[in-house]
Amino acid sequence: MSTIESLEPRRLLATTPAPSVTKLAVMNLDTGERVAWLKNRTVINLATLATRNLNVRAWTTAGAESVKLTLDGRPPYVDNATPYSMAGDRRILTKRGEHELVVSAYSEDAATGDSDDAMRVRFSVVNIPTAPNPTPPALEGNWNLAFADEFDDAGAPDASVWADKFWWGGNVYDNTDEFEAYDRGAATISNGVLNITATKQSSPGTDGHSYPYRSALLTTGGIDGQAAPGFTFTYGYAEARIKIPKGQGIWPAFWMLPASHHDGNGEIDVMEVIGSSPDTQEMHYHVHGESHGQAWRSGTDLSAGYHTFAVDWQPGKLAFYVDGVERWRYAAGDVIAEPMYLMLNLAVGGDWPGPPDASTVFPATMSVDYVRVWQRV
Question: 184 in helix, strand or coil?
């Protein structure tokens, strides 16, 4: 019987060699077939599979009578019957992003416990359509596509990936005195494009106040107690192809925050454009109360068409790109080194752009063709 137990697996004083885990596999629960051997850096692409009913199976040396499997530090699953698997027939591999699995084998006479004998693997779950096949960034090294949303399915953004509020559950951001409240209904997909639209209409805030503008925020970071993260990653090349709006008081952004929700640990602003200066791309990195950044003047109106905005985040380095050309680099020991998530939003007003005026055209729309994340292998 497979159970989720708070009890330790069977263990006594060691009198014989401890059993060990020899290999792991991802299994299709519908057919019982192996999807892939599970090793470090394995990538499970949900888009290529006919099922989302996936599980992990463990093989051990002789003498094992139970196996403990711990996924992402959550309470462990203990299986006392072969074939050893994670919670029996329950599917467990549907959350996109990076995962760590620790597996230990036990017997009546010995146990590996959580010692160095335990098998540890880090792997990723993605949902990337096989066509079209995006081109990796034109940078040194080999790259795997870890995340992609091409916004091909008309309607609302995928709620399993994109949350519509900040991680604490709020739909307003008091720190910058903005004029909008975020509403999921202001983000729609049509003709392969995500449109985030700001309109001049009263919109309720989660803080109990009413705001004069309605717009949308999308984040892969989840909401505490409400929604699990849709995608997080550590190091990589994050890129979005965006057509920005312009106008006094308009403030589109593509940015990243820590998955730990300790926002002071690092904020990467891949793209910010103040609508009254549509020729200027703002790139910033904020960490522990300090701010670093660069304003790049393009010489053209960036709102006139689509442009790609990207950051190559590597240990000790952030390199920012516009249309594939590096425009600013920050290299220091305080570059964040923990998982982060993606954010897209269109703000109205605030202490940086100032309020809209009579010249500002509404509705204002930020159009996103795709969001992709590549990681070096």
Answer: helix
- Collapsing DSSP to helix, strand or coil, 312 comes out as strand
Q: What DSSP letter does each residue of 91-109 carry, written as one string?
A: ------EEEEEEEEEE-SS
Tens-place pLDDT, residues 172-216: 998 889 999 999 999 999 999 999 999 999 999 999 999 999 999
- Mean pLDDT score, 125-132: 69
Residues 6+ apart with CB under 8 A from 369: 150, 151, 192, 193, 194, 240, 241, 242, 243, 306
User: Rounded to the nearest 10 degrees, how much is the dihedral formed by the CA atoms of 232, 217, 222, 144?
Assistant: -20
Q: How far apart are CA 124 and CA 287, in angstroms?
A: 27
Name the token pair of 77.
């699953």
> With the CA atoms of 127, 133, 134 and 138 taken in that order, what torsion angle do they form, in degrees rounded to the nearest 10?
120
Rounded-to-integer distance, Cα 306 and Cα 365, Å: 13
Q: What is the CB neighbour count within 10 angstroms for residue 273?
A: 27
41 contacts: CB under 8 Å, gap ≥ 6: 122, 123, 124, 377
Look at 87 and 372; give whichever has higher pLDDT: 372
Per the structure block, which two tokens stand in for 87?
């919670």
Are 181 and 124 a contacting pair, CB within 8 Å? no
Question: What pTM was estimated for this model as a whole?
Answer: 0.74
Furthest-apart CA atoms within the chain: distance in Å:
83
Cα distances (angstroms) measured from residue 201 to each of 180, 215, 348, 363 = 9, 10, 12, 10
20-67 confidence digits (pLDDT tens): 899 999 888 878 888 889 998 888 887 778 777 788 889 988 888 888
Main-chain phi, psi angles of 9, to 5 degrees: -60, 165
Section 323-329 average pLDDT:
97
CA-closest candidate to residue 244, choices 285, 213, 282, 287: 282
Q: Domains of the chain, with CATH numbers?
A: 2-126 (2.60.40.10), 143-376 (2.60.120.200)
Q: What angle do CA 230, 164, 358 make, to 5 degrees?
A: 140
pLDDT single digits (tens) 209-220: 999 999 999 999
